[in-house]
Amino acid sequence: MPNRLIRAFMRLMGRSWAYDSVDQVREVIAKQSFDSLQERAELHAEGAAGLTDSYAFQPGLVDLHDELHDTWHYLTALGSRAREMGYAALAGNLIAAADSTREVLARVATAAEATVPAPEVPLSR
After folding, report:
1. Are 101 and 71 in contact (CB under 8 A)?
2. Which of 32, 41, 62, 97 has the highest CB neighbour count under 10 A?
3. What is the pTM of this model?
4. Greater confidence, 124 or 30?
5. In degrees, to the nearest 5, what angle opens at C-alpha 51 toward C-alphas 59 and 104?
6. Burial 70-108 (b: 16+ CB within 10 A, else e)
């Protein structure tokens, strides 16, 4: 398995590394996830600790929605291409991932909307 430097060099050359086994794919995904787990958790916990009111959540949620929207388009395009190429299982997984991303998009949008406090309604007698 290539290290980050080799992968970065290959990307500069317009190429990428493909793994030959499911175990290798699982290993690289696990390594990428677990190597940065502590750092990511601390980074986001520190950021969240600095939020002072509901409006403070808004910029991050709006940005997250934009990133997820891009991810949805990416997954949809990959799924369509996989289907065109006859890779049914791959296409199915990509489309399922796109569908899940669409659900997350909706929830993030709803959360962003919830950052705006509801107007106070006077009590009636």
Report:
1. yes
2. 97
3. 0.77
4. 30
5. 50
6. eebeebbebbeebeeeeeeeebeebbebbeebeeebeeb
